Structures are given as structure tokens and as C-alpha cells.
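Self-study notes.
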Amino acid sequence: MKRDRSTKLILTALITVVFLIGCEREDEIRDMERTPAVPLANAAELIADSVFLYAQTVYLWNDLLPAYAAFNPRQYVSTDQLAGMTQELLAIADYAINPETGQSYEFYAQNTGAPKYSYVDNPGNNGSLANVAGRQALVDMDGQANDLGLLVGAYGSSNSDYTLYVQAVFEGSSAGRAGIKRGDRITHINGRGLGSNFNAEYPTIDETFYTDGAPVQVMLEGIRTDGTRFSETLSKESYRPSVVLCDSVYRAAGRSIGYVALYQFNDLENLGTELDRVFNRFSAAGVDGLIVDLRYNGGGYVATAEYMANLIAPATLTGRTMFSERFNESMQQGRVDILKNQPVSGTRYTYADYDYSEAANTYTFTKNGGPASVSSVVFIVTGETASASELLINSLAPHMDVKLVGATTFGKPVGFFPLKIGEYEIYYSMFETANSEGSADYYAGMVPDHEEYDDPRYGFGDLSETSFAAAYGYLTSGTFRAVGGIAKSASVEGTAASGAPKPLEAARHVLSPSFKGMITKNFVGGAHVNNDDTQ
């Protein structure tokens, strides 16, 4: 896309005043120097300009964007800069229409005030989340947490009759030391009763568990899985938890089945050793079938998902295509001068130094540990399963017997890397990930082969838990057996739990703390960059 004359003037102003935009080619600079000077803009206007001008280069659907003058980015200047930038991103996203739906690729029915994928982050906030300003992740992408240590969810038939269950507890947290477990029910927060009016009680739940600046100390009352009551005062604090929530090995029907529940794909430097531990255990046990529980996993780093795919894949896949990252045509053809102003953290390079062609950004399987001959994988998924988690599933699907149990996933086949604009980091939808068959079409989510509710009453890997029981049943019998929830099978087995509580519809997307993203920082195609050069 060629820039019009007004855009060149704005670029000149940005270069001169705040150094937000990189240099143009020499002939373009000479042309701009002959043009009349534009009126000086304030910093907020220059940031608004930058949000649009970067999008013209890096946004996945940049060919659908209008010219600078037609878009008029300065209309999004706001006294609340984060809100203004988010609204500008939403306006940019509205031009990228998915022909299959007639709506924006980034349309998000549960939060129409922001794009589904692209977002702005203030790095000063601890683990702030895509789509919801002011929220915090339970664990950030570097594996650090600063919270009570609880993941909670509301389940029930109506807003006036629901239960707040503990879905997961992180070791090393205040909640973990207090002995709170998955399946415990929280009935009161600081003396306020829960369960009778979700709309009125939600702000208290959200502030307690998922909002930046939440109270440092909180008193929780509830009922443990054994029926006894508890009252615990928990403290919000910094700690470094394990995001491997559970791992075990089962033997049945002549098979050795490995199970791992993973909360997040955080930085490989933090998670790699733990993944090695789990998959070395699977190797020693001769595991040939896997259950990978991603029910609360919103994604994370591409490199970590790639690493886990190599641990799962049989050795026979070595050298075959795992997935490709598809950038827009401008990026693939190297028209990325604007990125000269974006240094890659921890290196001497900028994002303009990379090769963004699809050929250069195709990943292949390289067996680096794990069981040698896994033939079947069942993934447990929910609407929280997103991005790098979906990438893992999509990459393995053409090559193995892959099944999904649970609910339709979030739907995020796109990823990004951060660009610095002022004091903020902006994450545009930059690339689409496609598997070896060229498939990347899961914007509406991946539909499970067998539907089940997430049953928080039982621990991870417990055969009484509906999703796990269905996955286990498939690996041991070759078919799905209905165990409750929303299973569609006509056969009901009496060995597993039935009547799993239904996730409360009103809470499904507001109580949504996991980071939903797919971050790349280590390009295969970096002509000047290798693993030793990146952070």
C-alpha cells in the first residue's frame, strides 16, 4: 500500500518530534523535505498517528485499511490514553471483515468495546490482559505471580442460584499454604455472601481475584470438598508458581496413558525444565497415549508450544512441517522500514532485521525428548483454551489421532510481538498460524469431538471428573462414553460422575483471567538473528 502525501507529512513530524517512527527510504525523505511543514502536534496526537501508521505496515489485514486522511487517527485522542488507543485499535479492526461471518475477524460478542485479539498494554501493570484494561493475569508470561493464588469460576442454573468454585490453586501462594483445593466452594468474601445475585456480587469477586490494585488481604469463607467449613485470611503476594497443575501416569487396557494439566505456555526459559521433567516421566513409563488438559490455558509463547509439540510428536514426524506463520504481504516483501525504530529487547537488532516470508517462518518437527511413539492425544478444552494452546492442537492434528473433549475453544489463530509506542506496548494481530495442511480457519473456535462440562468438584486427573473421564474412556476403548454434562452419546456409564454443574452463562467471559495470546520473539527467518541473540 503506497502512502499518500499527508501520511508522509505525518511521518516526518513523528520522526522529528518524538522519534516514534523510523526513517523512510532516501528518495522519500528528499520528497518530504520539499513539502511545507505540518503544524506541530502534541504527544497524544502523535501517539494516535503512530497507532494507525504502524498498523498500515504490520496489521495482518493491512490491505483493508483506508488512507491516513480517511481514517483520521487523531479523532481517537482521549484524556484516558489507554482507552483512546484501544478505541483506535477497535476502529482499525472494524475494517477487516471476515467474509464467512460478515463481521470483523476481531469481533468479540462478549466485549464489543475492544478487539478480540489486538490490545494495548501498560507494562507498568502486573500481567495486564488482552481485552480487559485494568485486569491482571494470575501468572505473567515470565512465570511470576502477584495475587492470592486462586482461579475461581461461577457455576449454576441462574444468576440468583450459583456457586463459586475453586478451579485451581497455585503452589507457593497464600491460598496454597492455607490448604484450599480445587473443588472447594467459596461462600463469603470479607463477610459478603455469594450465590444469590451474580450481577451484584460480581464486582466483589472480580476485585478480589482479578483486578489490578486488589485488596492486599482478603478473608474467604467456604466449604471444603470433605464438607467441612473454612475461614482463611489470604494475602496478595509475589511468588513463582508452577503452571503444571497436575501430571500422572495411568495403565489400562494394555496402554500407558500420560496426563498433564498446563495452565499457560509461559517463557520456555521458565517452563522448559518442568516440561522435560513431565515428559521424561512419560518416556520412562512407556506412554503411548496422552491426555493434555488445556481447559484454562489461554496461550503464551509460540516457542513453548512448539517445544511441547516436539515432546508429544512421535519420532517419525522429524523433519515434517509443524506450522507456518503467515504475515501480511507488506511484511513478507520486506516493506518494514517503520520497524527500524523498534528494537528487539535484549539484542542489537530491530524488528526490521527479520525475514517475514512464510518460507522463512515455517517450523518443522524436531524430536527433542518425550515418549518415542505416542499415537493418540486427547485435549481437554473450554472457551478459555486459546491461541498457543490452539496452535499446539492444530499443529498435531494432521499427523496424529487428535481428539477434543469439553467445549468450543476461544478461537485465536493469530499472534503478535510487542511494539513500543510512548509508554505503552501495542500488540497488533500480525500473523496467522497455519498447520501443514494450510488450515488456520478456527476464528470461531475449535469444536470438540465430545462435549462435556468442566466439573470443578473433582481434582485434575480424577476419573470422577467428566472431561477427564471422557478423554480416558476414549484412549482405553476407542469411543467416547457419556459421563454427564452435555455429552451427546446415548450410552451412559455408571462409573463416572453425572450432573456436573453448568458454568454460569453470565460469568463465562467476565471471570476470565487467563492471558489469551500467542507471542513470538524468536523468528525462524531472522537473517541476522539466532537463538543466542534473543532474550
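Second protein, same conventions, sequence then structure:
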Amino acid sequence: MPSVIYWCDDLNVPVLSRDIGIKHCSSLSIVRVTRPGDVRPAFPADIEVTRRAVVNEFGSEELARVLVPDNEVVLLNKIPGYADQADEVIVRGRVIGHRFFDVERRMWRFRPLYEGVTEMINRGLGYWAVIRMSKLPERFDVHRELIVRGNLPSEKYLHVAVSTEDGRFHGVAKAMRGGRLRIIKSWIAKGPLPDPRPSTLKDFVELNREYIERKAEEAVEFLRKVFNEYKKPVVVSYSGGKDSLVALDLTSRTGVKFYILFNDTGLEPLESYENVKEVAKLYNAELIIASAGDRYWRAIKEFGPPARDYRWCCKIIKLAPITNEMLYRFPTGFISVVGQRAYESFQRARLPRVSVSKWVTKDIVVAPIQDWTALEVWGYILLRNLPYNKAYEYGFDRLGCVICPANELGEFETVRERYPGIYTRLSEVLRDFANRQGLPREFIDYGLWRWRRELPGDIRGRIRVSLRVKYPVELSDNGNSLTVSIDRPINLSTFAEFLKMLGIVMVANGSYIVKGKFGEAEVRVEQGSNKVVISSSNRELRVHIAGLAARSSICGECNLCVNWCPTKALRRVGPGPSFIVDEDKCINCLLCSKACPSAQYLVYRNPGIHGA
């Protein structure tokens, strides 16, 4: 079902509640948008990209300015269904089309819809056609003899606005071979766009002032109750993004003392560093920086490129430095105020407003804007005149690691333009990785490195290549035997220490014999020290030992294993995978393996183990 927002036709701005619209607007429109409907305002860079998409598709600057006007509030709504980044474009309270990034042509394109199609037909702009048919059935191929008049493209697969001859039905088609048009969507014809009316985000804020202030007051009161209940130091996790900026300002309004925590992954937009300094000075709060240094670039040599289903990077450059810093500063725990919002993802939508962190020990996580939309967040920022990160003005809708594998190729194009240094460095790493593994050029050109196990369907359908990326750890599970092959030697001293976590360890005939609560296993390290054969009837034990082998070879030096050990039985004694285990303190909980990205991403989630 579509989500709904409201639009004040009098002022030509969105309305955050129906009640405010009824109270202040003589004409109120309902805008149905694709879920989750986390609409956001378009900045000038967004307007330029959207106009470029129209010109790329239809070759008409005039049409671009008709559909995407100047001096008006325009909204964007990120949507699924395309191979890459795509947004609904909302003008004057109407969805006029979709802008989307074409991964094959490496450019932004535009698919007109509803009032956007009406404008094209009425004005004769762009590619359009009037068809001698009473309806426009979807997936129907219209041959040239049925086209009464219009302007058709010579290039295949471009979009064409279409209408029945009587004008009752409109739709959008794709140009095909032989001058055919394939109808891809149709509807009962809409009217034209309302007449232009200048509007600004300031108009939007003033109209919705009462609503925004009421929402903020509720969030401030919520924070006060949480702070009074837990009575721990308050730390606001500030990323330089819009959501954490609002969470920070709301915290400041409670009157409590708070600290600002900035996780410097080393991959942030350049503008974030200046913004963090500005914000810390504005709120007169102590700034704590949890820095990953160059750990990402060192770890990528260990693990290979991260992917959406292989995100070792989050643990190494985010969780590890934060955990290190927070345990040192607040050993008895703290309250972490975050800018988490339900609209950001299905995963975050399931999270409560107050929770205990699964990752950072002794951390109470508080999300004061969990139920806020992006439009409400921007309304609050503009109402309070908060110093938002200028990187948003380049077209980013979220900020963080600029080379995150969760980014779309459309976003990477902006990174390439704005931050060529970091983009080039990643490109070089990817090329080297692809060459060593004999991967096709599509691995880089189409961003296929962003998935490790299986490409999503919308990508698979467009790019037909054979792609098998090798993990640093390869597993082969054969009944009661599991073979672990690693692309580098195992630190045998550390491996012997790690095995103590599973129980009593003995050496017999060149093999380790492990006996403990998980059962018994024979572990043989083969010549060359990079292959381990694990024999045991207990599958769980086999997997745990495989995880320990991976940890003994591949280490991002994040120290999460040490910090997560509840009894302090684990200690690092050197660089890389160099550890010792205190048998008297170890309780065989294996929380260290749960924390370790090597065990988690190279073994526990490895497709080489059935059901892992």
C-alpha cells in the first residue's frame, strides 16, 4: 500500500499533518508515495541531477524546466524496483516521474508518470505519442500503424509518454525495435500540473512550525525520563549527519551535561570534519573522537573488499574504535543518544526506542527520533537554524563512509566527482583484487564487488557474467570432516592458544585432540600451515574450530575479541593474530569469536558450510 503525505496547494509546500493542512490551507492535496515514504527536500544539486536525467532521456532542456521548476519546493522519495539509485520526484504535490541511475549507460535517466506525462502530451515536449486505441494494456506492443502522431526517439529503450486518441488514458512506454512502443504502465489520464507558485523551505517550516515544535517537545521529555531512569553519563553519537544533528540538539534542550562522540572511520566526507568541529564548539561539549586511523586500508588487504553481505568493515572501523574509546572513558557504562530512525531501513524499523547495544558493551541506546521522517528532521533543522553538513548539498541523502558498499553507483558518481582521492584509492584496490582473482571487468564497472554471495535479481537480469569471488577462507564440509583452506599461513602458536577455549587440548601424532563441552575433535594442520582438517561428529564444534583457525590467520587488529571477553582471559601479545589465553579465566563462552569479523564473516556465514 502506498504511503501518504499532504500538500498545501495555497503555499505549494508539503504539510506534516492533515490537521495543520485543514487549518491553514484552503486546498489540500493527498500525495501517494512508495513506502516507506521517507521523502526529503531536493537541494540545488538534486534539482540539477534530475534535470540532467530529463535531458538525457528526452533531449529537451525546455521539458526539464517544465517538469523540475526553479523557485519551488521539490521533494524526492527513494524507491526500490530499479537496478540502482532511484527516486520519485514530487512537484506541486504531484509525482511527476522517477529519476534513476542507469548502471549500463552510467548516467541518470527519467521515467515520466501521471501529471508529468500529461504535461508532455499537452505541450508536445520530449518523446510522446497519441495511439489509436481505446485503452493502453500493459506489456502490449504498439506498432507504427497505430500511432496517430507524436515525436518518437530513434534510440531503443528510451521512455515515451503515450495517450489514447480520446485522451482518456495515459501511460509510459519504451521504444523498441521497428518503431514499436511497449506499454509498461498506464492509468486514467490525470490533469496538468497546477500553475507555478514560488515556494521555499522557509515557507514549509513556517506552515509546520507548531507541529515540529510539538514533536520536539515530546522527544525532549522522553530523553529527560530516560536520563533520570538510568543516571549514567550521556554521550551523543554524532556522525555529521542530519539525524544525529537533531538528536544532539534535542539532548542539549534537556539541560543535562553530555559528550559528543565522533567515529572517524577515515572514510568520511571532508565536510564532516569541519562540521563536527563547528557543532562541538556551538554546543560547548567535550568532543570524543573514536578514530580508526588507516585501519580500513590495512584490513582490506586481509579480508578483501567489503560487501553488503560481507561487512567486516563496520566492526573494524566503527565498532572497534568506539568500543575501545568508550570502555576507557566510561568503564561502568553510558547512555548513547543516536539519530536512528525507523524509516531508514526495515531492520531499524524493528528496533525499540530504548535498547541495550548488541555491539558496544554496557551501552544503553536511546533513539529520540525513532518515529520521525526525513522531512520532519529537515523541518526541525531549518526551524532551529542548525549547522547541517554541507555535503548534503551535493546530492547525498545519507552521510557516512563515502565508499560504503551499501552505496548505489549513482552515489559513487558523486563520490568520484567530489572526493577523487579516496575514490581512486578504492578503485586501485578493487582492480588489484579483480586481477588477482581473474574477475571480469564488470566486477568493478557495475559495482558487483558490493555483493559477495549472490547478486540481486534486478542486477542479475541485466548483467550476465560468471562471477565467483574467492574468500580468504574456503570451507569444505564432508560429513564428520571439515577442511579449512586459508590463503596465508596460520599462526600456529595462537591457534594452539585459541583451542584452549574449547576445553582440554592434547597433542597426539601431530594432531590436536580437543575435548570439552562441545564434544571431541581431532584437528590436523597440514604441511604449509594454511590448511586445517577437523574431524568431529559435532558440527557446531567443527565450525567453532574453523573460526579459531581463521582468527589465527586473518586479523584486522580491531581488539573486539579482547574487549568482549567477560573474564579478561584473552590478551594480545603482538601485531596481527598474536594472542594468549588464560585457561584459568576462560569460561568457554566464545563471545570473542562472535565479536571477531574473521570468524563471523569468513566462517560462521560462509556458504561453504551448509546452513551457516
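Instructor comment on the second fold: Residues 209-230 form the longest helix (22 residues).
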